[in-house]
Write a structure and sequence with these properties.
Blueprint (H helix, E strand, L loop, with lengths): L7 H13 L4 E5 H8 L17 H15 L2 E5 L3 E4 L4 E4 L12 H15 L16
Helix pairs in contact: 2-3
Length: 134
């Protein structure tokens, strides 16, 4: 959810999207994920987000959001955090300079979307009953 907290209109759009139905994956940087969860009330300046959480807090945030939304949550950064609500995986192969390159998060979103299009069953373990697309 690119720049989810940038404006009041975007924050309201996030609420509308979350209430509209089931999502397979929610992906964003720390600021975007905090906005989606509802804990970040500050206005984001741009796509990039500075980190204010420690490793445990990040893991708790993605797990909590995954449980609440019954989906997979991917929080990107120098270390990525991925959760299905039961497990949190830390992926430590990023680099702080990736935040300086425009489009890396969008590229990741495209790769995730393509993978789910080819292997939709991989997201179904997190889907609530009756919400799976058939």
């Amino acid at each position: 959810m690119v720049r989810a907290g940038a404006t009041a209109v975007r924050r309201e759009a996030v609420k509308t999207i979350l209430n509209a139905g089931y999502l397979d994956v929610i992906k964003g940087n720390e600021g975007e994920i905090k906005t989606v969860f509802g804990t970040d009330v500050t206005q984001q300046r741009g796509v990039d987000s500075s980190s204010t959480l420690d490793s445990r807090q990040k893991a708790d945030l993605v797990r909590s959001l995954a449980v609440r939304q019954k989906c997979i949550v991917v929080m990107t950064g120098e270390t990525d955090y991925v959760s299905d609500g039961a497990t949190v995986v830390k992926i430590q192969n990023g680099h702080r300079l990736l935040g300086e390159v425009t489009g890396t998060g969008c590229s990741l979103g495209t790769a995730i979307s393509a993978a789910l299009a080819v292997y939709p069953q991989d997201s179904e373990s997190s889907a609530p009953p009756g919400s799976r697309r058939g």
